[in-house]
Amino acid sequence: MTLPDRAKLPLAFDVARLRADLAIVEGFDWTDHFVRQNYDGRWDVLPLRHQAGATHPIMQAYVPPDATEFVDAPVLAATPYFREVMAAFRCPLKAVRLMRLTPGSRIKEHQDHDLAADWGQARLHIPIVTNPGVTFQLNRVPVTMAPGETWYLRLSDPHAVTNDGDTDRVHLVIDCEADDWLIGQIAA
Question: Considering Cα of 120, then 126, then 130, then 132, what sign does the dihedral take?
Fold first, then answer.
């Protein structure tokens, strides 16, 4: 079966509760995204789950392709709804993080070569805050994602994001194994 390049999953989350957990961690130390050539402006990350043994913030934001063991970051203890959201996914979770793109910033078109459910690895996006000035393009076609929705995006394909609005864009981003349960959600 060939899966679509994007799919809105039949999972939706309470936006007020997502934003309440985000408010708890907004003042924490976020880490600039480490692939600096892929963006202009400010794009930063707050790891909630990461590779076991990773202690440096950049290594906590990065998912090595051969990583098999993942642990919750201490920050997750302060965010009960994020834990509840993560528990809703019945597939093995790898890295989970908050990703923030500030106003006037852009993520240049690029490809994440290992992120396709067809190949066993998936990335899911749950918008928490966004604005009408945010444009997410996948295969040069816009994907409009509303807060609380869950989206699968085949990011091994070309994609880019701009935030031409006046507020941050923050997504809860989940990297996971594309098992039968997740494939069923994507294909639904």
Answer: positive
